[in-house]
């Protein structure tokens, strides 16, 4: 059987350029510390270097790779640098890269079990493995009433959970009638702490519930949601004829890594039959170490849960692991079956069709990358790195606490340290700008008690003690030169 | 600078296994015709072959790749087979695989311009290139009031468009107040043809508008939306005090490739100030050939448009190109700016932050794969393949028309031929089951006029005349053995 390669890349070319790009990646990752972490280009610089029109004739990969080096790389902010301390980590480990490469090469689309049974079954299986590694309650296993699914991000997981909650709360009628047209259901209300991620508010908007019906519950001195304040707000809303529908608890807020008390919140949700979603996007990974599993205390009271292996478990973006306790509720909220998707396996009811567990229809074979990560590192290897990052962060925290010029701005239970110079917002802004412009490291900020606060987020897979020490030195130097 | 590789994959191992997987993919794609196209495993077969618990210690990549061959591949339905005629194509070309590999290797997260300027600027630029290649109206270029953004799928693009429409129609108040709580706005109504993709109904549900407020407009004998029926329904809804908000026109329906008349629909939308979204997920690719650009007639009347390079333009899933006419309306509908995402570039207003153009926050560097595809093939190479696929489909259509036993079930304007045996539903079901169980090819069905109809979708990148001829022979043989 001859294959016609007219205009296509031949197998020989693919091998050649594939090997070349693998080597390019290996080289890049060995020299990644040499780049300024935060890209130093100005708006428009990259576009100005690109030809205004697409090529009529094909070009060589050699030309493309030259442009990657010369045009693209100066515009890259190096998330894979060990000196990346901004936001949260987004690790792309070598086994995950290879898993994703396999996924692209096999090139299936896993919307239905039938469109590639292995994609669905490996996903179910690996998410059960992950649940076991994290010590999640049994309700989230596929072998019980629940199960896991890969979403692109925690934002999508939150929206998905909220849609299921909206439906369940309205007796599965809001999908038909539209939100707030369900006559005997009062306006729906959603709850999260004042520290919750913007994705909660975005989800409330997208789901048609509205920001106005999102209650931002006050927090205690650790920036964790106050259960008494939540309970009181629920009572007020009930008294006003509204319908509490959804609570999102954060296990590690994005701003400061604040830990909402899941058990106390869960008991309130249980008493009022409110859907509890637990967002552990970054910190959930810590639970692979038994000594950090306290963050999940009370999780058996939750209806849904998510954490992101693409953050702190080395699994190339995008990979959010989203679990539900009652897969029936999720599927009922999201399923529509047109004729052109009907097939024997679906109608038999014996299989999972993950299209009904998510917003889009199509899906990549993303389970491969987590499978390769778990098999390459083993549970032990992943635990080793999570523990190392927590030790490094706790060292950094101790240096801040021992310092005369800097102070902690929030508890640092795991691998995020929020701190600030005592000189005020302008000084902190200047320190951050100096550091980020230097290219030596990259960190970002938040506000705590309305004060500008620096965030030292430690979780890049190659970050070692020497990087954190150098960062602390650079921070002190920047403070010195600023004052 | 030494890098500590404890538990990590060393650069040497990464090169070795990277080369190995590249070669594995090259081999796979050369022998892909040898596999049964539709996986023949039974529910549970794959999971039963996987160990129940994750490994404590890391394993070798050799063991993993052995399992890919022995456990995973039997469970794969081969979307990259030239004998894949099911659904729509989902092509993963070699340049796209390499672009995606680069993306994983660079490992950035492009939620903001600042988090990697090159990711944002290459995306804007390549989507302008694509708009030019497709001959889209100028309003969709980033250099005007609009612009393009990569979404994972057309489903997400539809939801995104609907959210923007919902907000614009309510004077930017539904995000705050919740859908249908905006006092002086009647209930919102959404319109699509009876043939529209299930994602329209799913989007109406997710956005809180409700299926009940989706009007499925009747179609003409070509299965295209009837503009007169649309206009009449809008008038009835207005008379009932409702608020028409959104029309989705299909340029190539999923079921039968029916082409809604965009110009006539667009004129109605313009007159009533209704958001018009045009979904050209599969067929949009045809417009890279000037002779097929008629499918976009009237597109200047649309507010948003999407098509999927991951279907017929060889760009590994996931890659939907979504364009809007007024980026301000989109951003206003989707933006929330928490403190921890504030940065100088964003506040300057001089850059695009694509997080405000989509549902999730995080995003991969997906522009690389389309960039590599366009540069490898050139416009000319892509045109060549699209033309070839249309020729093959039109040949197939002629064979059906010339046959005594089979008939066309719908017009076949491009590369999808809907046809059926004249013997009725049971015969057609038996033919399909026989073919798919044979492993020789894979095709799926729909219903037209309530009759079971087979879909011959031609667009896999390696499909040649001999595959289509063999398929037609197999179809006739299956009919023969069935009767």
What does this structure look like?
Two copies of one chain form a homodimer. Chain A is of the alpha/beta class and 483 residues long. Chain A folds into three domains: 11-34 and 39-76, dopa decarboxylase, N-terminal domain, CATH 1.20.1340; 108-364, 3-Layer(aba) Sandwich (Aspartate Aminotransferase, domain 2); 379-482, Aspartate Aminotransferase, domain 1 (Alpha-Beta Complex), CATH 3.90.1150. Chain A has 16 helices and eleven strands. Chain A has helices at residues 11-31, 45-48, 61-72, 94-106, 117-134, 154-169, 174-177, 198-206, 227-239, 262-272, 309-312, 327-334, 344-348, 367-402, 425-438, 465-482, and strands spanning 147-151, 188-193, 214-217, 243-250, 275-279, 304-307, 320-324, 406-408, 416-421, 444-448, 451-457. Chain A has a seven-stranded mixed sheet, sandwiched between helices. In chain A, strand 2, helix 8 and strand 3 (214-217) form a beta-alpha-beta unit. In chain A, helix 4 (94-106) packs antiparallel against helix 14, helix 6 packs across helix 8 and helix 15 (425-438) packs across helix 16. The longest helix of chain A has 36 residues, at 367-402. The first copy, chain A, is globular. Chain A starts with 10 loop residues before the first helix and ends with a helix. The model of chain A has no long low-confidence stretch (mean pLDDT 97). Chains A and B meet through helix 1, helix 2, helix 3, helix 4 and helix 5 of A and helix 1, helix 2, helix 3, helix 4 and helix 5 of B.
Helix content of chain A: 40-55%
CATH first level of the largest domain in chain A: which class? Alpha Beta
Q: What share of the residues of chain A does DSSP label as strand, in percent? A: 5-15%
Structural class of chain A: alpha/beta
Q: What is the overall silhouette of chain A?
A: globular
Count of all domains of chain A: 3
Overall CATH architecture of the largest domain in chain A: 3-Layer(aba) Sandwich
In the CATH hierarchy, the third-tier topology of the largest domain in chain A is known as: Aspartate Aminotransferase, domain 2
Write down how many β-strands of chain A occur, each being a DSSP E stretch of 2 or more residues: 11
Chains forming the largest contact: A-B, 168 and 168 residues
Strand order of the largest sheet of chain A: 1-7-6-5-4-2-3
The low-confidence parts of chain A are none
Question: Helical element count of chain A?
Answer: 16
What string, H for helix and E for strand, traces the elements of chain A in order? HHHHHEHHEHEHEHEEHEHHHEEHEEH
């Amino acid at each position: 059987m001859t294959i016609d390669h007219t205009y296509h890349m031949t197998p020989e070319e693919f091998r050649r350029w594939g090997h070349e790009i693998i080597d390019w990646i290996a080289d890049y990752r060995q020299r990644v510390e040499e780049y300024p972490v935060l890209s130093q280009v100005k708006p428009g610089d990259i576009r100005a270097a690109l030809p205004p029109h697409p090529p009529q004739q094909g070009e060589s990969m050699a030309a493309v790779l030259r442009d990657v080096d010369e045009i693209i790389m100066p515009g890259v902010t190096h998330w894979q640098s060990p000196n990346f301390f901004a936001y949260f980590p987004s690790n792309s480990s070598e086994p995950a890269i290879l898993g994703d490469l396999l996924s692209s090469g096999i090139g299936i689309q896993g919307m239905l079990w039938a469109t590639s049974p292995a994609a669905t079954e490996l996903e179910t299986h690996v998410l059960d493995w992950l649940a076991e590694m994290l010590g999640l309650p049994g309700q989230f296993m596929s072998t019980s009433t629940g199960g896991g699914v890969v979403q692109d991000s925690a934002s999508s997981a939150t929206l998905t959970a909220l849609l299921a909650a909206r439906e369940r709360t309205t007796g599965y009628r809001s999908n038909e009638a539209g939100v707030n047209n369900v006559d005997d259901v009062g306006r729906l209300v959603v709850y999260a702490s004042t520290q919750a991620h913007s994705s909660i508010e975005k989800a409330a908007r997208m789901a048609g519930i509205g920001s106005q019906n999102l209650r931002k519950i006050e927090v205690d001195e650790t920036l964790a949601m106050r259960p008494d304040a939540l309970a009181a707000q629920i009572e007020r809303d009930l008294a006003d004829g509204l319908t509490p529908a959804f609570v999102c608890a954060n296990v590690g807020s994005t701003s400061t890594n604040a830990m909402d008390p899941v058990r106390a919140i869960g008991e309130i949700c249980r008493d009022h039959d409110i859907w509890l979603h637990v967002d552990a996007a970054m910190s959930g990974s810590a639970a692979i170490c038994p000594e950090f599993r306290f963050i999940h205390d009370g999780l058996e009271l939750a209806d849904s849960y998510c954490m992101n292996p693409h953050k702190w478990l080395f699994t190339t973006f995008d990979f959010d692991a989203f679990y539900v306790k009652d897969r029936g509720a999720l599927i009922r909220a999201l399923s529509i079956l047109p004729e052109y998707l009907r097939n024997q396996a679906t109608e038999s009811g014996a299989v999972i069709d993950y299209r009904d567990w998510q917003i889009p229809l199509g899906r990549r074979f993303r389970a491969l990358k987590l499978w390769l990560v778990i098999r390459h590192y083993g549970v032990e290897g992943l635990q080793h790195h999570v523990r190392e990052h927590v030790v490094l962060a706790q060292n950094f925290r101790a240096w801040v606490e021992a310092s005369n010029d800097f102070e902690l701005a929030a508890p640092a239970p795991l691998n995020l340290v929020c701190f600030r110079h005592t000189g005020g917002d302008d000084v902190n802004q200047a320190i951050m700008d100096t550091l980020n412009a230097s290219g030596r490291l990259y960190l970002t900020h938040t506000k705590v008690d309305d004060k500008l606060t620096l965030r030292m987020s430690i979780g890049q897979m190659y970050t070692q003690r020497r990087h954190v020490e150098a960062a602390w030195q650079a921070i002190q130097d920047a403070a010195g030169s600023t004052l």
